Predict the 3D structure of the following.
Amino acid sequence: YEGSVFIKPIPIERDLVKIEKRVNAKRKLEQKFFINEQINKIFNENLYFNQIDPSGLEITDIIKQMNQKMLELGYVDEGFYNSILKREQMAPTSFPSGIAVPHSVELNAFRNGISILTLQEPIVWSNNEVSVIALVAINRKELKEFNKLFEIFIEIVSEPYNVQQLRKSENYYEFISKLKMMMYELIDNNDSD
């Protein structure tokens, strides 16, 4: 039977180690399946803007462009844009790693989604240079499963190297592939599970 662990009639230490390794491998496989499923659900090729020239663009212009597409695709309502700006006034959402993660104060999206925009050149967002923007829409009813993926996403994009690798993506599919690989690697290296 696939996934079985064969042990002696009276288990010895080595058998217990084999069982523990198999359980950990199964847990990591389930986490990877969950990540794959959630990424495919939350990210959308139509919400991906690649290598935008930031010349003459203000932060509000970028947010407005991303918000407009989310509005057109039914992720958010008309008030979402103002809620994002309200959140930015409270505390900027840029990270020293080179990403900004603007989001609404309320969990008022119709469905969860993350819009990605990469820039040809960094812009200054608060006190940080930013080259990737991830506009986040969160639905209150889907918060629990969204948070599981979002925590991993934030851990990935907190590293400048990861942000630069994602920014260099040629297209949506390369971006998603890199993101999944980074998340899978994080799970594989997490021995606390």
